[in-house]
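Training component of the fellowship. As part of building independent skills, the fellow (R.M.) carried out the full modelling exercise for a liganded target. The chosen ligand was protoporphyrin IX containing FE. The inputs are recorded below so that the supervisory panel can assess the work.
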Amino acid sequence: MFSDPQPVLDQLRAEYGPVVGLGFGPAKMAIVGGPQEVRSLFTRPVEDFRWNHKFNALAVVVGQKSMITSDGDDWARRRASVQSAFSRRRLNGWIPMILEQADAAIDALPAEGTHEIDLYQVGRAAILEIVVRAFFGESMADRAARFGELMQGPQDYLELPAWRQLPHPFPIGKRGRVKADRRAFDDLVRQAMASIRANPSGDPNDVLEVLVHDDSVCEEEILDQANTLVGAGFDTTAASLAWMLWCCGLAPDIWAALRVEADEVLAPPGHDHDAADHTTLNRLEIADRVMRETLRLHPAGVISPREAARDIEVGGYTITEGTLVLWSAHLCGRDPDVWNDPLDFDPDRFDDMTEDQRAAADAAWVPFGGGRRNCIGFALAQMELTLLIARFAQRLDVTPPATGKPGPVGMVVNRPRGGVPFHVTRRS
Ligand code: HEM
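Fellow's submitted model of the complex:
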């Protein structure tokens, strides 16, 4: 369970049903994997749960003043301080930039011949460039690669088996590297804050500038929010793109269909993307279905934790106060009562549904959580993934290794073990 959770979750669900109690004393846990039961968690008041709980490994990385690790009024204030960055209008404004970054990543690959390339690393670097530009504007773009280096320590730490992530006060091993990287990250952000104070641009799209001028948040909170946006926005999306590449790379007909669609909708290589907007995105219907189907089968968060702040009733069971509640997007996405042939990768399944099936599927598709504590970056992530897979399929021929799709790695962010080492040829 604490090193390779997916098979254990599948087995527990099959043997014991949608709500399973485990552990004892302060380590009591409830795994909630049935779609109805998970939805019932999302509709409860947020006060019924604590995200700032004793096992929260994320606090080691993003800090105690991040929205992701806080509760109550502090959480509401911190989430509100960055919410404007995720308005639909603002997200749509990023579409040309996302396509430009996809092109930059592809243009950096060898122009001729076929090469074995880990497309996970290519996608991850592109997503980092996108996230840094989206939140900090062009002024921080030259620091994106450095941010990436400083996120490696946290990634290595969060990939440890869960029991090795348990919070303790000693700065040793991977935890020591996380602390050192975090200090260096904060120094970069502090420098940027100082230059904003000295020369404010007045750009309402620069999240850091908005935070610097927001009297309701202190410096430590700004640093934790900045780290959260880069950290949460980067590895999750990169892991999802890696699974998308595997799923589509192994299905040449889907890769070909993505390409035909992208050729119709996107500008040809070498042209700018200034005209791309939300209508462009809406026309990438196959890429959208591929994105949804991949996140169904391979959600970045296999289980997401919160602690019960009072006794709650879920699916006929009482989960007592202090229990760690692990709801599972992985189990919901593979529930055989909702999805036909749940282990098959079939992007067209979203097309051929009756109304009842669609309602059940909507309830069971929860890679971004739900309710007031849902993922703040859900629309950005979906937009990035749809545009990136379309552009990759349009501009690259890929051959996956004969070994087939690998198993997962990563306790906090689920990604394919070994990355995406495909044979890649740039399309002329
Ligand atoms: C495919 C990509 C992503 C997936 C699968 C994902 C998934 C999730 C999930 C499952 C939650 C937790 C919900 C809960 O605790 O119940 C969450 C929370 C969060 N996500 Fe994402 N996420 C993704 C991308 C992003 C992006 C791009 C950003 C921002 C740039 C982001 C920022 C956050 C933040 C800040 C929270 C905490 C929200 C809160 O506690 O109020 N995520 N995400």
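The panel noted the following from the submitted structure. Residues 5-426 form a domain with the Cytochrome p450 fold (CATH 1.10.630.10). Residues 219-249 form the longest helix (31 residues).
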